[in-house]
Amino acid sequence: MEKMPYRSEVHDAAPRVAPRAMREPAETTVSTDWRIGLPVLQGKRVTLREMRTSDATSLFAMLTTEEVARFISPPPSTVEGFERFIAWALRQRLAGSYACFAVTLEGTDTAIGIFQLRELEPGFGTAEWGFAIGSPYWGTGVFQEGAELMATFAFDVVGVHRLEARAAVRNGRGNGALLKFGAVQEGVLRKSFLKNGEYIDQMRWTILKEEWRQAKVVWSERLH
Ligand SMILES: CC(C)(COP(=O)(O)OP(=O)(O)OC[C@H]1O[C@@H](n2cnc3c(N)ncnc32)[C@H](O)[C@@H]1OP(=O)(O)O)[C@@H](O)C(=O)NCCC(=O)NCCS
User: Residue 32's pLDDT is what?
Assistant: First the structure.
């Protein structure tokens, strides 16, 4: 998800009227617990949990560096901007269209990155995921473990059958991470992402539920 669904210029300006699902959660979220509150996804070293307002400072520090932001939509440019992003993410989760987890490591509760999932069609059959991790943790296995937790959530809890990802063609690490994770490259989305005033090509990657089921045994052995 090079293109973050949250855009400060659009969402911060939106009227603060809660959608129906937010005002009446008891009626609308009976069978979808994750909409009421995200579960804590526990791996060996990595935990994914719901973002909190207090994560804004560490996420700002981790995700606004040049190397992290190079190929993705511009992250919020201030700590307050991240606080607004976190509040927006909680509203979207309650509305049932988006989930964003903070990544933390064993022995600490500091958010070092995020994994996002957004609905591409009603009912979440097809969804898009995206991720960004602070560069001190690149190449350490954090992505791989977090991705396994997130895929398990998407397929087992949310009910996704097709999980898409987009990565700028020039994003070597993003594409390398998806390839290593077992995603299948489906093609190039030409000039599909506006970055720094230039339309650039993106690679589209997918994982299908049946492919994930086959890999699941191996993954669950690694996670527990
Ligand atoms: C994408 C991201 C989460 C991946 O995490 P990571 O820890 O860097 O990923 P990993 O190291 O596990 O995997 C990356 C793989 O790509 C490989 N790679 C690195 N640069 C590469 C390049 N230029 N071309 C091809 N492969 C490359 C790495 O060698 C590694 O494979 P290996 O473990 O077999 O050596 C992290 O890089 C990140 O947050 N990037 C900034 C945000 C971003 O671009 N998000 C992606 C949006 S789709």
Answer: 54
Give the chain's residues under pLDDT 50: 14-31
Question: How many whole angstroms from 210 Cα to the centroid of ligand 1?
Answer: 25
Q: What is the pTM of this model?
A: 0.88
| Ligand 1 atom with minimal separation from the 174 CA | 1
Ligand 1 pocket test: pick from 114, 128, 144, 173 the residue with the most ligand atoms within 8 Å of its Cβ.
173
Between the CA of 212 and the centroid of ligand 1 the distance, in Å, is: 20
Q: Is the CB of 164 under 6 A from ligand 1?
A: no
Q: Give pLDDT, residue 5.
A: 74
- Strand 41-42's sheet: what is its strand order? 41-42, 46-50, 98-105, 113-119, 126-133, 162-168, 198-208, 184-195
Where are the domains positioned within the chain?
8-223
Ligand 1 centre from 143 Cα, in Å?
Answer: 8
Distance 123 CA to ligand 1 centre (A): 30
CATH number of 8-223: 3.40.630.30
Strands (E), the chain: 41-42, 46-50, 98-105, 113-119, 126-133, 162-168, 184-195, 198-208
